[in-house]
Amino acid sequence: MKKRRDFNRAYKMLPPKLRKTVQKRLMDDVFMVEHNQSFYRKKNGHEGITDYEWKGVQGIFSEFGINAETGEICQTTEQS
Fold first, then answer.
1. What are residue 68's phi and psi, to 5 degrees?
2. What pTM value is reported for the model?
3. Which ranges of the chain would DSSP assign to H, the alpha helix?
4. 63 φ/ψ angles, rounded to the nearest 5 degrees
5. Is residue 62 packed enough to be buried (19+ CB in 10 Å), middle (13-18) or exposed (0-12)?
6. CA distance linking residue 76 with residue 73, whole number of Å
7. What is residue 73's three-state secondary structure?
8. pLDDT 10s digits, 15-43
9. 44 Cβ contact list (under 8 Å, min separation 6)
10. In angstroms, what is the C-alpha Rg of the chain?
């Protein structure tokens, strides 16, 4: 798995008041890191994201109707 992944565009699509909440969920539940620097390195694609972690990233952003890979708003039938 040498694919470079980042979710910076998706993160920027979140309302500002939700960013810290999502960051904490990603750090605690997906990446299991304690330091903001590790989170930002993964967010910007400077540190690898495993397939398992990527599924977690996609799941969290899909809750907000955002495609983690493209940062685009997904078509949904229900409001989050």
1. -65, -35
2. 0.85
3. 8-13, 16-25, 36-43, 51-62
4. -60, -25
5. middle
6. 9
7. strand
8. 999 999 999 999 999 999 999 999 999 99
9. 6, 8
10. 12
